Amino acid sequence: MATEGATTTLEKKLKIRARFLTKEYDMMKTKSDMLKTLIPFGNTNIKQFWALKGVSFDVYEGDSVGIVGLNGGGKSTLLNIVSQIIPPTSGELEVNGNTNIISVGAGLNGNLTGRENIVMKCEMLGMSNADIDAKMEDIINFSGDQVIKKIDQPVKTYSSGMKSRLGFSVLVHQDPDILIIDEALSVGDAPFFQKGVARMKAFKEQGKTILFVSHSISQVKELCDKVIWIDHGRVVMEGDADDVLPKFEEFQLTYNKKSKAERAKITHESGRDFSLDELREENPGEPEELFQKKLYDQPFTWFTKAVLSLLTIILAFTIGADLKAVPLRTAILHPFSVFAFHWFILLVVILVFLMTFGIVTRKRKERHVLD
């Protein structure tokens, strides 16, 4: 029997493969914090939070997979990465097929009417005007009576449930390979949920893949065959829904009995006790590149800092020449006609000081985090 099961899995087409996915966020509270991150040689003493800490899993064609976990566990972050809305900090992701993500009101323009939003979203998904016209009434009718009554009113007047129904209706009238649902049915009523489940089961029968996030265990039980349980950015358990959900429910009951202070401490400790070096050490046989930050998430190198510093000096030189009305050719041949030598030295000293200050503050922060 085990051999037959393994053969069946191998015959199914791999749709999603995640290997050691991580996601690090800067916890910026003010606009000045955001500006600090744009200055490579400034004080970037910004706290970081790891939403994902090495998540790995495989999803095959026709799988209906529920993703469960506590609030802040990393479920929505994971779906956004799989949907390729946001990039991972490190790790490897393979997605074979086009994805559609459905979340509460995602992608809706509040100033447009429901009908105008349908046109906008369908055009964004590549539908022709003829296809939109052909499916318009089906989309409106599927979204329910409340939406039908207000379809020509601005979406900003809709409730969250109505927005969810409208967004869900648009996307289930497409033909995605992978349907990703993030709490989109949590605000709907029972009849709409059943209608949504019926449509998703029809997708599944066509061999399509479904990823479903919901805090409703009953919804996950009804829709999903497999479950991935994520807690504080890590996969706790993965397998058949009948095996995983009872253990998650038991954990949830225990967790809910803890005080608010105890829960906050658990979250805080979880957010700081992680590093890519630690993840690499836990998985010594895996390729090194899986545990390296992507280029867009790496800090500036010394070469980059030197180039930016040079560009800063050139910019200051150009502005100075313009203010003094000195022709650029003359300024290049006689640079001290624009800046006195001591002003040039002062600018270099300021740049070096800013770089050094940034390094010192970052090192100090790292020591503080490790204490």
Describe this structure in words.
The structure is a single chain. Helix content is 50%, strand content 18%. The model is unreliable at 1-8 and 363-371 (pLDDT under 50). The protein folds into two domains: 13-21 and 52-294, 3-Layer(aba) Sandwich (Rossmann fold); 300-370, no CATH class. The strands form two sheets. The chain has a six-stranded mixed β-sheet, with helices on both faces. A three-stranded antiparallel β-sheet has the order 2-1-4, covered by helices on one side. The chain has helices at 2-11, 31-38, 75-82, 114-124, 129-142, 145-149, 160-172, 190-205, 217-223, 241-256, 260-272, 276-282, 302-323, 328-333, 341-370, and strands spanning 14-26, 48-60, 64-68, 90-95, 99-103, 178-182, 209-213, 226-231, 234-240.
In CATH, the homologous superfamily of the largest domain goes by the name: P-loop containing nucleotide triphosphate hydrolases
What is the radius of gyration? 26 Å
By CATH reckoning, the class of the largest domain would read Alpha Beta
**CATH hierarchy: architecture of the largest domain:** 3-Layer(aba) Sandwich
**How far apart, in Å, are the first and last alpha carbons?**
52 Å
Main β-sheet description = 6 strands, mixed
Q: Tell me the β content.
A: 15-25%
CATH-assigned fold name of the largest domain: Rossmann fold
Please tally the β strands and state the result: 9
The tally of domains stands at 2
What is the element string, with H for helices and E for strands?
Answer: HEHEEHEEHHHHEHEHEEHHHHHH
Instruction: Enumerate how many helices there are, as a single number.
Output: 15
Going by helix content, strand content and strand pairing, the class is alpha/beta
Could you list the spans in which at least 5 consecutive residues all have pLDDT below 50?
A: 1-8, 363-371
Kindly report the spatial arrangement of strands forming the biggest sheet.
5-6-7-3-8-9
Q: Write down the overall mean pLDDT.
A: 80
What share of residues is helical?
40-55%
